[in-house]
Amino acid sequence: HAMAGVSWRYLQLTIFWLVCEHVVAISKEAVAHVQCQVCEMAVQEARAYSKENKVEEEDGFVDLVDALCSIKDKAGRWVTTLDITREDSDEALTVTKQATIGECRMECLIVQRACTGALKGKEDMLASMLAKGAGVKDLKNKVCAKICKKKLPKLSHWVDEPFKARDEKEVETEELIQKMRAETGMGMKMYKREDLINLSPGDMETMAAREAFAQERQMARMENSDL
Question: What is d(CA 148, CA 93) in angstroms, rounded to the nearest whole number?
Answer without folding.
Answer: 14
